[in-house]
Amino acid sequence: MWCGSNPVWSSKGKEQARRMNLIALKMIFGDRAKFFGIVMGVTLASLVITQQGAIFIGLMSRTFGFISDAGFPDVWVMDRKVQFIDDVKPLQDTKLYEVRGVEGVAWAVPLYKGMIRARLENGQFQNCNLIGLDDATLVAGPPEMVLGRLEDLRRADSVIIDVIGAEDKLARPPATPGGPRIPLTVGDSLELNDHRAIVVGICKGSRTFQSQPNVYTTYSRATTFAPRERKLLTFVLVKAAPGLDPEVLCDRIVRTTGLAAYTRDQFKWLTVSYFLKYTGIPINFGIAVFLGFTIGTVITGFMFYSFTIDNLRFFGTLKAMGVTNGSLMRMVLLQAFVVGNIGFGLGVGVASVFGSSMKESQLAFKLPWQLLIVSGAAVTVICVASAMLSMRRVFILEPAVVFKG
């Protein structure tokens, strides 16, 4: 005896499901006012969650922008008490040679990073990040040169300025009162801690959290520009020997030298963790995202509930015709799925256009694919919760009530 499903009944079931889906779509698209209200609620929630999340991620990525730009080093070595990239605690110069002596170190170079004041032509001062690169290799230099060459740093008194600082905070006074400031270019000069510095290049790199101009020079020149201290070595940048896991090398350096050693990703996370723990940034953005989620849920839930109440007679008629609660639930979930996808697409689209339009501004905005998944999951929760809330009246509805009076 054949025990498989009856193809006739299977075909009827599919046709019935198709018709129910068609009815559900006609119901949701037929009530335009409710349809647009529900879509706008989902769009608002999606927009706020995506936009605020992207700004938060962009802001956090700026905290380790310099680490990303440095590129080549596998391991960053520093004082044990360093908490993030700008928490400078200088080392003795002899620590460089101790690190070079650790087994598995292919090469190790010094890096200076500190704050310095630049005196502008109008007599004003501007704080800058002074970065001193190894004289021989220029490791950790800017990732992209706009004008000039990185090798030009070997000239006397030479520095390279990032393009944001050159066009804004370090720009020369306007030629005429009220006119635009004149960007620094190759050949111009600066005064750094009473030392003359000649601009030999303009570079492009990641914005930093503090948004101060970056000034690159050689390590030996940076120690001359910087205020005199007994210790000036900020970091030791290390390349692991071929085939050696950088995390294993970190453990060796820690045991041998007593210093802290982190891989590039570990140092990024150390920096981000500091800002998450000791600043109010996560709370501020968390509140904004929570409000967007809550407002979107309230608006969508209210509009969905109102839509269900308005169409209660249709649901009652379907129940009187023998349609089960499960089938009705699938109809409402289909409606929620449709408006959810439309609202999510609109919200993410508006957020993406906003971020693209602000790309050249100082606003931090970064939209990774992981954030889209989080935003989509939040929208799904909003739509499913709204659908379940609205269906409660349908489940307890007696079909006979529809035909009274």
Largest sheet: spatial strand order: 2-3-8-5-7-6
Q: What kind of sheet is the major sheet? A: 6 strands, mixed, barrel
Number of helices: 13
Helix content: 40-55%
Spatial gap, N to C terminus:
52 Å
Rg, Cα atoms, Å: 31 Å
Which blocks of ≥5 consecutive residues have pLDDT under 50?
A: 1-5
Shape: elongated
Structural class: alpha+beta
Q: Summarize model confidence as the mean pLDDT.
A: 86
Overall number of structural domains: 2
Describe the structure in your own words.
The chain is an alpha+beta fold and 405 residues long. It folds into two domains: 16-62 and 281-402, no CATH class; 92-258, no CATH class. The chain is 52% helix and 16% strand. It has 13 helices and ten strands. The chain has helices at residues 7-30, 32-63, 65-70, 94-100, 163-167, 219-225, 246-257, 264-278, 281-310, 312-320, 325-357, 369-395, 399-402, and strands at residues 75-78, 105-119, 125-133, 144-147, 158-162, 189-192, 195-204, 214-218, 235-240, 260-263. A six-stranded mixed β-barrel has the order 2-3-8-5-7-6. α2 packs antiparallel against α9 (281-310) and α2 (32-63) packs antiparallel against α12. The longest helix is centred in the C-terminal third of the chain and has 33 residues, at 325-357. The chain is elongated. It starts with 6 loop residues before the first helix and ends with a helix. Mean pLDDT is 86; it is low at 1-5.
Q: Which properties best describe this structure?
A:
single chain, six-stranded mixed barrel, disordered N terminus, 52% helix
